[in-house]
Amino acid sequence: MKPHFVLFAALYAAFAAGPVFAQQTALRDAAAPRALLMGAAADSNEFGEPDRLQEPDYAATLGTQYSMLEPENAMKWATIHPEQNTYDFGPGDNLVAFAQAHGMKVRGHNLLWYSFNPAWLTTLAQTATPAQMAQVLEDHINTVVGHYKGKVFAWDVVNEAISDSATGTGTGSDIRDSIWYNQPGIGTTGDGFIEQAFRWAHAADPNALLFYNDYNIEQPGAKFNAVYNMVKDLLSRGTPINGVGIQMHIPMSGYPSSDGLAQVIQQFGALGLQVHITEMDVRLAVDSNGQASAADLQTQAQTYQRILTVCLQNPACTAFQTWGFTDKYSWIPGSYPGQGAALPFDANYQPKPAVAAMLDALENTPPSINTAGIVNAASYKGGAVSPGEIVTLFQVNYGPSALTVAQPQNGQFPDNIGGAQVFFGSTPAPLIYAEAGVVSAVAPFEIAGSQQVSVYYKYNSLQSATVTLPVAPSAPAIFAANSTGSGAGAILNQDNSLNSADNPVPADGQHVIQVFGTGGGMLATTPSDGSLAAPGLNDTTQDVTATIGGKDATVTYHGAAPGLISGLLQVNVQVPAGLAPGPQPLVITVGGVPSQDGITVAVE
Ligand code: XIL
Fold first, then answer.
1. To 5 degrees, how large is the angle CA 474–CA 499–CA 385?
2. What share of the chain is helix, strand, coil (3-state, %, to 5)?
3. Which of 82, 169, 351, 376 sits most deeply, having the most CB atoms within 10 A of its CB?
4. Element (DSSP H or E) covering residue 542
5. pLDDT, mean of residues 252-266
6. Which residue stretches of 428-515 are H helix?
7. Contact (Cβ atoms closer than 8 angstroms) between residue 194 and residue 230
8. Residue 8: what pLDDT?
9. What is the DSSP letter of 507?
10. Is the model's pLDDT at 440 over the cut of 90?
11. Which residues of 560-578 are buried (b: 16+ CB within 10 A; e: fewer)?
């Protein structure tokens, strides 16, 4: 367990035990157990304006309510690259420092846009060759992403590249005219300039998540189709794109429909992409003082709640951000005359009805469960589940904010960790750990003999839908030493030391290793769920064989791991003579089903 988790848990416990004030929960605290980032766009001192971060109410609201910020203007071309040979990182650095001081993530915005370009660049584009434009863009991406490497966790690499009159193909005239596409462009065709921008950004910071961001794609239609087809095309060429940002600048009510938005998120998610809601605001008619009616503020609150709820219902939606947070600073009145009051906090930083509505969505939307997210804890592979198999449920979407690891009491693992529970049929499963979006559980032994089992997840009083999983007699996998599902196995040498490249096992036909996995199925004596395995041997009922480096290896024991949680599989294997030194592939087979590829044992 990482120390900061312990610290946070202790602080949180102290806070929770303290006196109760009439203060609303902070949005970020309600979003943390949902594994959702709660973001707001923010500005510092761009273009010589007074630094908003020095305004106490601005800083206090931003720093306590949000877990993510995005520079509204500080990292755009015109701000950060005002002259050809001049970068101004000041405002962006201020925002990054503020975020770091307040435990917030930073979303970068943006690296390529048709708009907000500095005068020198638009002038240059009138005479430059595509090759020169490519060089300018590569240098810019390299410099900006490089400057913020490790500090900006996600970038809008490309902003608003699809035309408002797109027909849906996502290529040709569906792509908006710009200096980067065709005026003069960077010497590519179709979405090639977009692919190239993603590749340059990835090279500059391989760990940053890279997004395409656009508006009017929050419901099915021609523009959504264009973006969908374009990102699909980018993915087909191996472009390093991780997600799509849906801006969500919307009017008061009815739009987009919940079903339409759910479909859009589902379709991007099915491509393996994340979705961030990046720029939500809900504009209202306002009077000359910028005031909206009480009724409109209620309708607005319902819209915020509805959109956030749809985001929470799909695990692909991993961040929810508004374009600013206080009506004191919002682009809406300037861009939509007669409209405003679009954000969750009013111009005096008081929460509007939207804040309570967002809290309602965060606290009361049931958790999700997802068949594809339920995997063997050792291999991370899905499919059938076997009795006693240790599984990990990803994408449960609601759980303890901090990683909470079970402590067995009187030799028994709990079936509730901090309010999280997993049920197979109606039986609560023993749990190993739980954290906002992830929980690890042991399938009850009583599922043996069933064809299938229904599974649901519960957090406090909120219950997920039920999914059905096939049941198999065995579903073996070997734990990796570093818990990644592949590489060096969780293997002890004969002297009980961890097998590793530095501590290999001799291949002389005399040495036995202990291999740890799960999915071995039933045991001669059925253990009680969640118990620590009794001392002494308890064999799997099915035959177990093993190979190392492709050679048959004698199995000397296969069964429970004494003293460890029931469901953990221990297989003792005699290492055959004559293996080449180095990592050798290790496979165990239980009842004819092999463990995953890619696990190795280090041989001397
Ligand atoms: C807007 C900012 O809010 C304004 O302050 C600025 O003058 C212009 O840009 N879509 C986007 C954002 O991706 O970058 C835009 O931000 C709003 C629309």
1. 15
2. 30, 30, 45
3. 376
4. none
5. 96
6. none
7. yes
8. 34
9. -
10. yes
11. bbeeebbbbbbbbbbbbee
Among 18, 11, 76, 25, CA closest to 47: 76
Pairwise CA distance, residues 369 & 371, whole Å: 7
> From the CA of 213, how far away is ligand 1's center (Å)?
12
Q: For ligand 1, pick from 331, 336, 343 the residue to mutate: most ligand atoms within 8 Å of CB.
A: 331
160 is catalytic: yes
| Beta carbons of 351 and 344 less than 8 angstroms apart | yes
Buried b (16+ CB within 10 A) or exposed e, 266-296: ebbbeeebbbbbbbbbbbbebeeebbbeeeb
**Three-state DSSP class for 15?**
helix
The predicted structure's pLDDT at residue 148: 99
Angle at 518 between CA 514 and CA 521, to 5 degrees: 110
- Running DSSP on this structure, what letter comes out for residue 402? S
Which residue is listed with tokens 């020169």?
132
Q: Is 389 a catalytic residue?
A: no
Using CA atoms, how far apart are residues 168 and 27, in angstroms rounded to an integer? Answer: 36
For ligand 1, atom 9, which residue shows the shortest CA distance? 73
Give me the DSSP letters along 130-183.
Answer: HHHHHHHHHHHHHHHHHHTTTT-SEEEEEES-B-TT--SSSSGGGBPP-TTTTS
Predicted local confidence at residue 13, as pLDDT: 40
Residue 578 half-sphere exposure toward CB, CA atoms < 13 A:
4
Q: Which atom of ligand 1 is nearest to the CA of 109?
A: 14
Whether the pLDDT of residue 2 is over 80: the answer is: no
CA distance 112 to 171: 17
What are the residues whose beta carbons fall under 8 Å from the beta carbon of 218, sequence distance 6 or more? 224, 246, 247, 248, 250, 256, 260, 261, 264
Nearest to 519 by CA among 416, 448, 414, 427: 448
Contacts of 601 (CB under 8 A, 6+ apart): 488, 489, 491, 499, 505, 513, 515, 548, 575, 583, 584, 586
DSSP state of 186: S
Confidence of residue 23 (pLDDT cuts 50, 70, 90): low
Q: Fill in the amino acid letter for 484.
A: T
Q: pLDDT category, 437, cuts 50, 70, 90?
A: confident
β-pair type (243-246, 209-214): parallel
As a dihedral over the C-alpha atoms of residue 135, residue 138, residue 140, residue 143, rounded to 10 degrees, the angle is -120
Ligand 1 centroid to Cα of residue 322, in Å, is: 12
d(CA 378, CA 35) in angstroms, rounded, equals 23
Residue 239 near ligand 1, beta carbon < 6 Å = no
Cα(538)–Cα(119) distance, integer angstroms = 76
pLDDT digits (tens, 9 = 90+) for 95-132: 999 999 999 999 999 999 999 999 999 999 999 999 99
Three-class SS of residue 137? helix
pLDDT of 21 above 90 = no
For residue 11, what pLDDT is reported? Answer: 35
